[in-house]
Specification:
The protein is an alpha/beta fold. Helices cover 48% and strands 19% of the residues. It has helices spanning 21-31, 43-53, 69-78, 96-104, 117-141, 152-169, 183-190, 192-209, 234-250, 254-257, 280-296, and strands at residues 5-7, 13-17, 36-40, 57-60, 87-91, 109-112, 173-180, 216-221, 224-230, 265-272, 302-304. α4 (96-104) links the parallel β5 (87-91) and β6 (109-112).
Length: 307
Amino acid sequence: MMDFLVYPGEENTVLIVDDDKLMVSALSQILSTKYTVYVARDGFDALDVAKELLPDIILLDIIMPGMNGYEVITSLKKDQATRNIPVIFVSGLDEIADEVKGLRLGAADYMNKPFTSEMVRLRVGNQIKILNQMRIIEHLSITDPLTGVANRRKFNSTLDAEWKRASKLGLPLGLMLIDVDFFKKCNDTYGHLKGDEVLKSVAGIVKGRAKRTSDFVARWGGEEFAVVLPETDIGGATSLAEDIREAVKSFDFSDILGEDAGITISAGVASIIPIRDGSISKFVNTVDEALYHAKRSGRDRVSAAPL
């Protein structure tokens, strides 16, 4: 962790980069009532802090010792981790050419010194508002609206990323597919709205049991769920699947269905150490086949696929 100042505030975060203590103090007083504010004293520290903390927005001076603001934003935009962080230049350079250069380098906005409190709040607030709206849109685009877990699109991108990571590091990657047994009968008996509530409850159980920060739960489609399990061998994947199966079986669905309907699940699991030219689709199909083996074998069980 770098040695930087922190002014604790609310949810969104701002990084102020300036070697002028008075300027830092003024900006911090304006913004810290609404945002959490971090401070870096020069361009080199700014790059380290930005990469470590990923602030929502950066206020960047141009004239600084060692590395100027133009060099800082150029480095930020080259780094995949920081390239999308909005940057507002706050500078004493007031020529049009300076502002144009900053905007061409990717700055979201440009403020001249001296500034007013209202100007700072408005300009920072506008960028934060845009950022939060984009995050909401992004979240909705990757979330299943019924259950609140990730959707199939997010599952595909996550599995692809974890496959590449496991391949690079030579680590096992586990995958689980879950199906709610006799779900059509549940819908026919209790109605689709009650069926939806059952799916929400099952999703909650799966999320509650697959609780490592690296575990990833998604709705596969219909009454099926998928769980990506990084760094998990077949024993670990099977054990977790059994834990989830038992948790669903023992869950009291009477508040939803008006009676103990005995909801159960079937699951297929597999684990593999991927190779660079391996087939993700073949891996998924293998797990899918294991799931259907569990269903054909009587349901309410876990089937592990040999690989």
